[in-house]
Design goal:
single chain, 23% strand, alpha/beta, elongated
């Protein structure tokens, strides 16, 4: 009897629990696999032999195939020969990795997917193909999420970008939109404005010809924008009353102006590619647009001092004899009152080059954070462009941490007692800068 019980228990352990699952659940599991992997499941058992043909997802990667037409042939077979014609197709993802893709073939696949109830579309293709198929995609009325990424570098096209977004289109029920390709700002604005249920918006702007970026949506809750380092936008006008998370990457220059309305904003992630000397008012405008946040992650990659007005006293005017001197990145000297007050900020992470003037600006900012609880500081090494610039002006002036270095430090419980006041005193207890150079 004991032997029979052991055998029965052993048989139960060896039973195929995966095959015992209902078919809708198995198809849902297969929908998360790349098509190449889901086809391999046909070797598991008889039940799985044709199960993949009814998967609600097609996910094909051009890098899995050798050069030639094999990728197009396999995709055609997945769409028109092997696939169960009665099965819905809810998700389509195609990655070509800079390989040319026939526009006629892609259009046939998209039309077929749309006829089967396509809801989620993800395309990683080149810019020329995007321009060819985007008008077709905008006619898909049932689409809920759209991800389009230009796999080539977003270099400026010397020719005018053709109009891609028509005045009227059927795709108005998107909930998620990720667009990374060349598109006129006016067309992007029209596309976003027409969406009634849009909650997630992410775009990488290649807008060299557009001085003004103006976007608005009453439904978006997560907004991500990446203005490439070489893009010099003059006006950024954003109206998103329900946005709770903002992820912004931008280059700060003297002619940049912000007009932002985000009263519901709670978290902001700001990446500054570069700040030029004298851009304090512009930076204050940026901070003033996000004063409602409770959590702020600010990263400043590069500081560009004005080397034209700084020379070594008595030196000839040669490129290698100019020097880079630190400057106030947040507020200009004597204009500390321009710093906005963050009434709700509780968590603050700041990454930048912490020279002495940066420390002074940080202390000025800390004065305007009455409920701050935690602070994380990370030093970003300054890149020196002049051969003669070999001073310690740009080294970190942060206090030493528990590891014995001043590359990063964390502070908590700043809202308790006088912890923040003691921190500000500690930050200011550093050596003063060496004498300033002659100003021409």
């Amino acid at each position: 009897m004991a032997m029979k019980r052991r055998r029965s228990n052993h048989q139960e352990l060896e039973s195929d629990r995966l095959s015992d699952l209902p078919e809708p659940l198995l198809l849902h599991i297969l929908s998360f696999l790349p098509t190449k992997s889901s086809i391999r499941t046909s070797l598991l058992s008889r039940r799985f032999r044709h199960l993949w043909t009814a998967s609600p997802s097609i996910d094909l990667d051009r890098s899995d195939f050798p050069p030639g037409r094999l990728f197009v042939d396999v995709t055609n077979r997945c769409f028109f020969r092997l696939r169960d014609r009665s099965a819905p197709l809810l998700r389509l993802c195609l990655r070509t990795y800079r390989y040319p893709l026939p526009t006629k073939s892609l259009s046939k696949w998209l039309v077929s997917a749309n006829s089967k109830g396509l809801r989620h579309l993800s395309l990683h293709i080149d810019q020329d193909t995007i321009q060819s198929v985007l008008p077709l995609i905008l006619s898909f009325r049932l689409l809920e999420s759209l991800f389009i990424e230009n796999l080539r570098s977003l270099n400026l096209n010397p020719y005018p970008t053709p109009s891609l977004v028509p005045e009227t289109f059927s795709m108005i029920h998107l909930k998620s939109l990720h667009f990374s390709a060349q598109l006129k700002c006016s067309e992007l604005s029209r596309l976003v404005t027409e969406q009634r249920n849009l909650e997630y918006l992410c775009y990488q702007a290649d807008l060299e010809r557009d001085d003004i970026v103006e976007l608005s949506s009453p439904t978006v809750k997560i907004l991500k924008q990446d203005y490439l380092p070489y893009v010099s936008v003059r006006y950024i006008i954003l109206s998103f009353p329900n946005v709770e998370l903002l992820d912004l990457s931008v280059r700060v220059h003297p002619s940049l102006h912000f007009h932002v309305q985000m009263p519901s904003l709670r978290k902001a992630i700001i990446k500054i590619y570069s700040i030029k000397e004298g851009c304090g008012p512009v930076f204050c405008d940026l901070l003033r647009s996000i004063v409602n946040v409770e959590e702020l992650d600010l990263h400043i990659e590069t500081l560009y001092p004005d080397t034209k007005k700084h020379v070594i006293p008595g030196a000839r005017r040669k490129r290698k004899q100019k020097e880079e001197y630190p400057f106030h990145p947040f507020v200009d000297s004597g204009r500390e009152k321009d710093m906005p007050i963050f009434h709700n900020l509780k968590s603050f992470k700041l990454s930048m080059c912490f020279h002495e003037l940066s420390i002074e600006d940080l202390v000025c900012l800390l004065h305007n954070t009455p409920v701050l609880e935690s602070l994380q500081l990370v030093h970003v090494t300054h890149t020196e462009y002049w051969e003669s610039n070999k001073s310690d002006r740009w080294i970190s002036k942060l206090p030493l941490n528990s590891e014995g270095n001043n590359e990063h430090c964390d502070f908590s419980d700043l809202h308790i007692s006088d912890n923040k006041a003691e921190l500000m005193k500690k930050l200011l207890c550093k050596e003063k800068l060496s004498k300033k150079p002659t100003i021409l």
